[in-house]
Please model this.
Amino acid sequence: MHVQEWLDTVPAVAVYAVVALVIGVESLGIPLPGEIVLVSAALLSSQHSGINPVVLGACASLGAVVGDSIGYAIGRKGGRPLLAWLAKRFPRHFSEGHVATAERSFEKWGMWAVFFGRFIALLRIFAGPLAGVLRMPYWKFLTANLLGGVVWAGGTTAVIYYVGVVAESWLKKFSWAGLAAAVVIGVASMLVVRRKAKRATQEKEAAEREAVPAAE
Model:
């Protein structure tokens, strides 16, 4: 069933809860379609008087911030073994190459990797756990997490709601177009990250091959 159609069958309170939960779990480190659910709910709020876009944006932001914070705590406690466990459970998302790419981003950008990672589908699941594993100071993580969560979740809700209201006569078509755009953006960002991850893996393997003769 279409995500928006399903959300339309449940009470407004349940919509808020579903959005917060899905985004929170995704931010925690478990791959879920948080962006698609948020876009669908925001579109629904533009045509459903019972769903308040301000409350929706607040719930989405809360889910993002809390989920990332829990992920940070888990990553800080679990350390590298946690990443190895995630790689076994979710090999397509937590492969060695993906982790290496994310680590490079953290080393280069620090707390801003957490902020900008919120806007990239694949990196969204890395930010919290990896920041904990790398023991980023919590105040830095919380600042970037809070800003990124509010800007991404609140901003997405506001933009989609506004467009939905303006294009009310084309709302049904826009619903599909909006979801398609979210999927395309998510897939595109994922492909870019995977390409970098593959390159990082190849460079690491090449470095290891060069290190073996040197050691001998």
Residues 40 and 111 are 30 Å apart (CA to CA). The longest helix spans residues 171-215.
